[in-house]
Write a structure and sequence with these properties.
Radius of gyration: 15 Å
Helix content: 40-55%
Order of helices and strands: HHEHHEEEH
Number of strands: 4
Length: 110
């Protein structure tokens, strides 16, 4: 809740060496209040580390664009290493099916 940047800095060596996928809950207000950084600083740091940033939409992954990003709401971000872009379609498909599956099980579409 606002300390994501601190955790990323603490794991900097592991992140640099292994480039893991990262999932973060990003709330600009908490970042400002608790970690004393801006959303732009978090975004820029992750981009500098070689990540492509997406937020998890209702049915798919949407690339983060700070110009249009809704700063009032927190959101879940998935940070994909640039060399992991091949998994993007698979991840987006999984999000879609996990969102739709409960409706399917309840016979919503029948």
């Amino acid at each position: 809740e606002g300390f994501e940047f601190n955790v990323i800095l603490g794991g900097d060596n592991i992140i640099t060496k292994f480039h893991p996928y990262l999932i973060l809950e990003v709330n600009p207000e908490f970042l400002r209040e608790r970690a004393k950084i801006t959303l732009e600083q978090l975004y820029n740091h992750l981009k500098m580390k070689g990540y492509i940033l997406f937020y998890i939409g209702k049915l798919k992954l949407i690339e983060v664009d700070l110009k249009t990003f809704d700063r009032k709401l927190g959101s879940n971000w998935i940070c994909i290493p640039e060399n992991g872009q091949g998994k993007l379609a698979s991840l987006s498909r999984s999000i879609f099916f996990n969102a739709v599956n409960p409706l399917w099980v309840m016979n919503y579409f029948k």
